[in-house]
Write a sequence for this structure.
């Protein structure tokens, strides 16, 4: 931008602060200097991302929150033959009625992919992240953030009425829903609302709702998830990247040892998958397998040795269970005759 050294000119109507913050014409007046990528560069980036996922052996990938602009971008990349893997899209609630035209996830899966792309369901967010201390917990954070009260537990991001309305719409239209819920109170809200809607509508269809991240799920919640066919998608990479922080500051030793409790889910017969939430972590699926098997932090701590699973169980989570999660278990996930 040219704002270096001791002598430079600031356009009229602009301010350049010592921190590097540029205000109004200091930024806007430099036409042509700070440009976003050209449309063709954005589409190429989608193709590059698809190649990256394929390089890790991933043949089917999720886009876990698709807006209308992103939908059109993915459609464009797909039509140009840039997708090297099958991509399933989970749409923001406002788009569901427009693009989830088939009744039921089985029908959407059966309809198949167009140039490796298909819509699969709805995505909803209920809280934030543990490491950001915005996940919604039932008990206070081990070390509360500066300025917060001692009983700070994070917070919800949606009203109960809104969550009920979205879930009611999904169940009535037979749409699968993926719900971002890290804290056990957010997971409680998902279970409570979804169970209420099932009772209200009398629906007996198992739409395989998915709890995304599901990091601080409790054993009593796993039991209830099993009853209504909920799937847990665990973010085991958090054990390595954030496990020490969870242990020392976010959750404390006892709760940190129970994050992403894959063994408890396995023992209860709760179907679960492993994900990496790229770009939060690289899409190296063997990293997820490694962390599920070892549960070792960057500092070498083992968080919850009793929650480790075997290599075979972890591989099943990213293959067989992954196909089941998207209603494609009849043609993906395992190697079999035919």
């Amino acid at each position: 931008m040219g704002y270096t050294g001791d002598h430079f000119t600031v356009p009229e109507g602009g301010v350049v602060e010592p921190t590097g913050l540029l205000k109004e014409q200091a930024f806007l007046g430099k036409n042509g200097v700070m440009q976003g990528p050209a449309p063709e560069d954005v589409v190429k980036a989608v193709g590059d991302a698809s190649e990256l996922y394929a390089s890790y052996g991933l043949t089917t990938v999720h886009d876990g929150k698709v807006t209308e602009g992103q939908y059109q971008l993915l459609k464009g990349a797909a039509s140009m033959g840039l997708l090297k893997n099958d991509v399933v899209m989970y749409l923001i609630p406002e788009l569901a009625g427009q693009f989830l035209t088939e009744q039921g996830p089985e029908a959407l899966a059966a309809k198949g992919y167009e140039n490796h792309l298909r819509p699969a369901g709805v995505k909803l967010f209920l809280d934030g992240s543990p490491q950001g201390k915005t996940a919604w917990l039932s008990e206070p954070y081990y070390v509360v953030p500066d300025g917060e009260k001692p009983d700070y537990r994070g917070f919800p991001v949606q009203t109960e009425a809104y969550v009920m309305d979205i879930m009611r719409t999904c169940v009535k239209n037979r749409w699968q829903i993926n719900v971002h819920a890290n804290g056990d109170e957010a997971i409680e809200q998902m279970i409570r609302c979804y169970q209420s809607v099932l009772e209200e509508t009398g629906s007996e269809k198992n739409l395989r709702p998915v709890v995304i991240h599901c990091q601080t799920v409790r054993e009593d919640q796993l039991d209830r998830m099993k009853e209504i066919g909920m799937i847990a998608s665990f973010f085991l990479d958090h054990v390595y990247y954030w496990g020490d922080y969870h242990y020392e500051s976010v959750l404390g030793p006892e709760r940190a040892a129970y994050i992403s409790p894959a063994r408890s889910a396995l023992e209860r017969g709760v179907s679960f998958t492993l994900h990496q939430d790229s770009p939060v972590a690289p899409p190296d699926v063997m990293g997820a397998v490694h962390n599920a098997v070892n549960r070792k932090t960057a500092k070498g701590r083992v968080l919850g040795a009793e929650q480790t699973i075997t290599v075979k169980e972890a591989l099943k989570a990213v293959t067989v269970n992954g196909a089941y999660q998207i209603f494609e278990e009849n043609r993906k996930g395992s190697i079999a005759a035919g």
In short: The two ends are 61 Å apart (CA to CA). The first strand starts at residue 14 and ends at 16. The chain is about 40% helix and 15% strand. The chain has a mean pLDDT of 95.
